[in-house]
User: Which sequence fits this backbone?
């Protein structure tokens, strides 16, 4: 007597092996897990403001307070990389020696490449360095950190309790927001898992 051979398919296995990784990647991409976000802290001078509110005196003081080593990009990537390397060494030397006499001035022309501009911004964010952007120029200089005197203050108990209540409220709100974001992120995966379980139980019942 020939034994009947029946091919048994496991739908949940197909879902987990093929579709689940695809949907996982799609869900991660949908929630922006692969996005790279960057930001540059930039402040601009408004030169058309009234004289009593003008920042021109402050800007002129910054320009005249240092001897700036001017750096001009020529658009050649190899030369610009060499220029940026020298500028980086110069800025590091200024910071390490706490030099308040010299500085670096990047003059951005129409020839400058985008990557060179980004590298110049990165150099201007070097540790303990100060920088100002105005027009097509970036002034980089070092200033001595201000001495901060510590004072002992007396706080009333009521203020302390209010501060603790406010901090707890902020923590609770931040946790709820975090929980909502995680719930939205794993919603699709939860649905897929439930479907996989449904297919598995239906197949077991059928067998």
Assistant:
């Amino acid at each position: 007597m020939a034994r009947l051979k029946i091919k048994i398919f496991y739908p949940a296995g197909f879902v987990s092996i093929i579709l689940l990784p695809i949907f996982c990647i799609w869900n991660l991409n949908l929630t922006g897990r692969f996005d790279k976000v960057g930001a540059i802290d930039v402040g601009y001078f408004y030169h058309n403001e009234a004289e009593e509110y003008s920042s021109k005196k402050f800007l002129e003081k910054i320009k005249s307070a240092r001897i700036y080593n001017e750096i001009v990009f020529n658009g050649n990537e190899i030369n610009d990389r060499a220029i940026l390397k020298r500028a980086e060494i110069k800025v590091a030397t200024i910071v390490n020696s706490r030099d308040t006499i010299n500085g670096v001035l990047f003059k951005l022309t129409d020839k400058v490449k985008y990557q060179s501009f980004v590298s110049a911004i990165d150099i201007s964010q070097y540790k303990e360095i100060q920088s100002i952007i105005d027009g097509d120029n970036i002034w980089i200089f070092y200033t001595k950190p201000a001495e901060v005197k510590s004072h002992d203050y007396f706080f009333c108990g009521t203020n302390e309790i209010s501060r603790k209540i406010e901090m707890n409220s902020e923590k609770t709100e931040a946790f709820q927001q975090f929980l909502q974001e995680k719930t939205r992120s794993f919603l699709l995966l939860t649905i897929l898992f439930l479907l996989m379980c449904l297919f598995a139980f239906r197949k077991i019942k059928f067998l």
